[in-house]
């Protein structure tokens, strides 16, 4: 991403939401901004409507579990289809009550992504039109992508862990 574009994004966000910005910088070839969760929907709507920035395509919305921090992050990747610029936004939610407002009012595609994040991580998207499980059975009482759950049955005897570098 062009350094000037990074500066434009930060200047525009600081004018409106300076108290919401926690960190900004390049991570894995993405310009990434970590924000407070309070106004994430307003910030993304602002980036969508901004006459120069035009981040009007939601590429990704997903959860990331950080058990050592007792937090779940929500990562949003936005794309400007005119300039091919990409931007990553990240917010952190407490593990015991991961709640954030829905993005479905800005991006219709957020509907499925938020349902998947709810299904696997237990994140509640307030205002979501149909926040139900999408891939797991409705009777499931856990959120399987959280790292507190083992990946497989720990008492299995029919596998050879040396084949997997363990």
Could you please describe the fold and organization of this structure?
The protein is α/β, with parallel strands linked by helices. The protein has one domain (3-153): 2-Layer Sandwich (Beta Polymerase, domain 2). 22% of the residues lie in helices and 30% in strands. The protein is built from 3 helices and 7 strands. It has helices spanning 3-17, 40-49, 110-121, and strands spanning 21-27, 30-35, 57-66, 71-80, 85-94, 99-101, 124-126. The strands form 2 sheets. A 5-stranded mixed beta sheet has the order 1-2-5-4-3. Helix 3 links the parallel strand 6 (99-101) and strand 7. The longest helix is centred in the N-terminal third of the chain and has 15 residues, at 3-17.
Descriptive labels:
22% helix; 166 residues; Beta Polymerase, domain 2; two-stranded parallel sheet; globular; 3 helices; 5-stranded mixed sheet; alpha/beta
Largest sheet: 5 strands, mixed
Helicity level: 10-25%
Content-based structural category: alpha/beta
CATH C-level:
Alpha Beta
What is the second-level CATH architecture?
A: 2-Layer Sandwich
The quaternary state of the protein chains shown equals: single chain
Please write the string of helix (H) and strand (E) elements. Answer: HEEHEEEEHE
Low-confidence stretches: none
Secondary-structure blueprint of this entry?
Blueprint: H1 3-17, E1 21-27, E2 30-35, H2 40-49, E3 57-66, E4 71-80, E5 85-94, E6 99-101, H3 110-121, E7 124-126
Parallel strand pairs: 2-5, 6-7
Antiparallel strand pairs: 1-2, 3-4, 4-5
């Amino acid at each position: 991403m062009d350094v000037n574009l990074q500066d434009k994004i930060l200047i525009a966000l600081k004018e409106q939401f300076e108290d919401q910005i926690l960190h900004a910088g390049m991570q894995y070839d993405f310009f990434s901004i970590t924000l407070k969760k309070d106004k994430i929907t307003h910030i993304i709507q602002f980036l969508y409507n901004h006459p120069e920035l035009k981040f009007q395509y939601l590429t990704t919305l997903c959860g990331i579990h950080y058990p050592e921090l007792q937090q779940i992050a929500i990562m949003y990747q936005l794309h400007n289809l005119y300039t091919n610029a990409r931007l990553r936004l990240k917010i952190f939610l407490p593990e015991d009550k991961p709640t954030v407002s829905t993005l479905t009012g800005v991006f219709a595609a957020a509907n499925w992504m938020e349902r998947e994040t709810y299904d696997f991580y237990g994140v509640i998207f307030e205002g979501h039109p149909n926040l139900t499980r999408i891939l797991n059975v409705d009777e499931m009482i856990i959120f399987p992508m959280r790292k507190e759950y083992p990946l497989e049955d720990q008492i299995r005897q029919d596998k050879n862990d040396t084949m997997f570098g363990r």
